[in-house]
From TrEMBL:
Keyword entries, A-Z: Signal
Signal recorded as keyword: yes
InterPro entries (alphabetical): DUF1028 (IPR010430), Ntn_hydrolases_N (IPR029055)
Segments traversing the membrane: none
Protein known as: DUF1028 domain-containing protein
Species for this entry: Dokdonella koreensis DS-123
Pfam families referenced in this protein's UniProt entry, alphabetically: DUF1028
Length: 327
């Protein structure tokens, strides 16, 4: 795959309704905690974790400039596309929520008593709902305010939701970073009482394409930890692309700063270390090139030895360490 692989197209979420076999596995999101939020610049997103597999397949929905929502405990996958369409048509989150509940349809034999829903729109208005059956789980409830809604069920206690709210409101950085921090805070406060299995982070942006984030950990012992790694690697890729652009603009100091950020956030991603080595070589930083290639070699020796044969590194021929790597 090219280092500049084409951006992944947004998922055709409405088509999931046809995948009943998959939804039968992923639709029940009992023991779940999530946050939905929108920034005033039009970014809208969701962070969610659960004890079931593939939570990202059916629970989170978002649309830039419109809003974000989750349907959990017993998920009704129709809520996502219907809810976003209602928000896009100008309905408030409260009105959207009521319309969804009124038209629930009893998906998969369940009722609104088993729904938990959080909705926020691009104006910052929010609404939540926790059905009677969902409230019988270990702890279930929600907190919402300007620009966000936190909801959970099967949790260690209200402290989980409070920690998520506080982390989001106190956070800095992008919407994705604040959503991620909120999810981590919820886990640190006790998370779910019956285990953990999957997590997802979805952010839709006005620019779309490369700027969107759609990350899923479908089954893992530590899904939130793994989701953090994926998010950091997303930003590592953005940073190395920025470094390459700055180098082309003859701004070496800024480019080196961007390279450092990319490597710090790479979590050992071989592709980032390779690109850093190539960029350092084109900038004439031979010592840094050797440093970056050394890490690349330790992470992916087969690819790295192929890389060393590239004519780009001809100026390093004869250098002792470089020649030792080539043998």
């Amino acid at each position: 795959m090219s280092p500049h692989h084409p951006p992944r197209l947004p998922r055709a979420r409405t088509l999931r309704l046809a995948g009943l076999a998959l939804l039968a596995l992923a639709s029940s999101a009992q023991a779940t905690f999530s946050i939905v939020a929108c920034d005033r610049d039009g970014r809208c997103g969701v962070a969610v974790a659960t004890n079931n597999r593939a939570v990202g397949a059916s629970v989170p929905y978002a649309q830039a400039g419109v809003g974000a929502l989750v349907s959990q405990f017993e998920t009704n996958p129709g809520y996502g596309p219907k809810g976003l369409a209602l928000l896009a048509a100008g309905r408030s989150p409260e009105a959207t929520l009521q319309a969804l509940l009124d038209g629930d349809g009893g998906f998969d034999g369940t009722t609104i008593a088993e729904r938990q829903v959080g909705i926020v729109d691009a104006q910052g208005r929010s609404a939540t709902y926790t059905g009677a059956q969902a409230r019988t789980s270990a702890w279930a409830g929600a907190l919402h305010g300007d620009g966000y809604a936190v909801q959970g069920n099967g949790l260690a206690g209200e402290a989980v939701a409070i920690a998520m709210k506080q982390a989001f409101l106190a956070g800095r950085g992008t919407l994705a970073e604040r959503l991620m921090a909120s999810l981590e805070a919820g886990q640190a406060a006790g998370g779910q009482t019956i285990g953990k299995r999957s997590a997802a982070l979805l952010v839709r942006t006005p620019d779309g394409a490369w700027q969107d984030i759609d990350l899923c950990v479908d089954g893992a012992a530590e899904p939130i930890v793994d989701l953090r790694r994926l998010l950091e690697q997303h930003y590592a890729l953005q940073a190395i692309i920025r470094a390459e652009r700055l180098a082309r603009q003859d701004k070496p100091a800024e480019a080196r700063t961007a390279i450092a950020e990319a490597l710090r956030r790479s979590y050992g991603w071989d592709r980032i270390w390779r690109r850093a080595g190539r960029l350092a070589m084109t900038m004439g930083d031979r010592e840094r090139t050797l440093d970056y290639l050394g890490v690349f070699l330790s992470v992916n020796p087969v690819w790295a030895r192929q890389e060393l044969d590239d004519p780009l590194y001809q100026p390093l021929h004869g250098q002792a360490l470089f020649e030792a790597w080539r043998r």
